[in-house]
Design goal:
With 122 residues, the protein is mainly beta. Helix content is 0%, strand content 57%.
């Protein structure tokens, strides 16, 4: 059973930084993309970033481009999200996702973590 566990969330002041980590278990190798989504209270889950299996290609939502950086370490079965210049509107539960594919310009993922809370204060 593939499981994803996120960590690194917390409370940070606007302008600060956080680094989220996600460790995947239940698989030894992946040729699929991994990504991060987030969901704020009362809102739909939204795409944040994705990275190809080799780490050679990264994709970002316009709202985080230039501030967030996604990376992965396949040897550790991990994906990371470095978040800089955080804004209050970044406050959300952040979810790690695995086995991603892009269909008609939309990212689809088969495996999801439980999420980690990120709160950015003004």
């Amino acid at each position: 059973q593939v499981q994803l566990v996120e960590s690194g969330g917390g409370l940070v002041q606007a302008g600060g930084s956080l680094r989220l980590s996600c460790v995947v278990s239940g698989r030894t190798f992946s040729t699929y993309a991994m990504g991060w989504f987030r969901q704020a209270p009362g809102k739909e889950r939204e795409f944040v970033a994705a990275i190809s299996w080799s780490g050679g290609s990264a994709f970002y939502a316009d709202s985080v481009k230039g501030r967030f950086t996604i990376s992965r370490d396949n040897a550790k079965n991990s994906v990371y999200l470095q978040m800089d210049s955080l804004k209050p509107e970044d406050t959300a539960v952040y979810y790690c996702a695995d086995r991603g594919t892009r269909v008609a310009g939309t990212w689809e993922f088969d495996y999801w973590g439980q999420g980690t809370q990120v709160t950015v204060s003004s």
